[in-house]
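Researcher: I need the complex structure. Ligand is S-adenosylmethionine. Inputs:
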Amino acid sequence: MSNRLDLPQRAGLKERWIGWRNRLLMSPRFQQWSAAFPLTRPIVRARARRAFDLVAGFAYAQVLAACVEGGLLDLLAEGPCDTAAAANRAGLGLAATERLLRAAASLGIAETLPGERWTLGMDGAALQCNPGARAMIRHHALLYADLADPLALLRADRKEPTALSDFWTYARASATGMVPPGRRGDADNAPAATAYSALMAASQAMVSEQLIAAYKFNRHKAMLDVGGGTGAFVRAVGTAAPELRLGLFDLPDVVAGAETTLGRDALIAPRLSLHNGSFLHDALPTGFDLVTLVRILHDHDDEPALRLLRAVRAALPPGGTLLIGEPMAGAAGGAAMGDAYFGLYLWAMGSGRPRRPAELGAMLRSAGFASWKEIPTHLPLVCGAIVARV
Ligand SMILES: CC(C)=CCC/C(C)=C/CC/C(C)=C/C=C/C(C)=C/C=C/C=C(C)/C=C/C=C(C)/C=C/C=C(C)/C=C/CC(C)(C)O
Ligand SMILES: C[S@@+](CC[C@H](N)C(=O)[O-])C[C@H]1O[C@@H](n2cnc3c(N)ncnc32)[C@H](O)[C@@H]1O
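Model: Output:
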């Protein structure tokens, strides 16, 4: 006879244990006792710090935003400086600059040096060498405007315009079932496509680094990057796999940008074909044994995402491969990135959700793919990866 507990019993035990644990944690007497007792004090301090970070995260993010917008990260990267030079660069008074730099130093963005001088801190250095992360910090002004009243945002109809859905014009089109902007070459949509394409191009390097380290692209003959933007991913992969034939599919306004950036690239242009249309309405081009969807599926709700997977399946030859690269929910060491950051980001955008690899796997199966597997990336927080075969 097995003495293992069945599922409902285990669930009941877990619930009782969590109930007991939380009653203990909420007891002022337990909190006082554990803060005073030498063996539990380090745990209490660490949990209090974590709780404080949850409370103050927005203020920390705004300190970082001020350093980036005020040019202080750039200045500190040039070498140590004094407060007056920083004040000059940021266009702030001396007292305000000192307040900001002290805040930045407490967060690891800056660091103090003897003689009241300042230099980059460790986290400041990691961010300074990452133009994509810096572009996202600037872009967060839109996200934080939408999140100023989080309950109002969550109560509102997701089809209502938001700062983020105005920025990502195609996302609102996808959510409302409209024809995606730019499909008919509508001149009014070209500036919107240029703005979001520039942000995507700026942040693409950190993503392509992850995928190129995780997957051998040179085992394929031809790759079609669906939703490929202005071609930063195609260029990175084309450089790493010099024999690979390349294709890019996107909305017309975006493909026009790709033509400008890639058309004159002597390494890429001779093996590149550009295709425009809507992946939610049109068939995808054939003749590619690898299709990539990089930061695409999480933009779309389940029905359009499944429609897109079916279109990819139909365009691939027998034995063909789909590579999905995007930040995924439940990522190792990045649970908050998936469900808290992208969960709310994509809610504010009005379309899409972060998915767990198993959820993507189930969608791949129902789109007709024969098999799928997750492949590890160095930084799942930046990008996870799944390979599926026809
Ligand atoms: C040498 C010494 C002293 C010590 C050695 C110890 C050691 C090894 C230290 C390590 C130091 C180090 C190398 C640190 C590296 C840090 C890294 C790699 C940091 C990376 C940070 C990346 C960040 C912050 C990325 C942020 C990305 C964001 C916010 C992306 C947002 C994307 C969005 C909103 C996308 C939107 C697209 C849409 C609409 C969803 O489709
Ligand atoms: C989040 S961006 C990702 C761009 C690029 N793959 C990257 O990672 O940098 C989404 C891309 O999908 C394209 N897109 C959105 N809806 C589309 C549609 N219905 N048909 C074709 N492309 C579309 C957008 O124009 C944009 O370039």
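Model: Summary of the prediction. The pocket of S-adenosylmethionine (ligand 2) is lined by residues 170, 180, 197, 200, 204, 207, 227-229, 232-233, 250-251, 254, 278-280, 294-296, 299 (CB under 6 Å).
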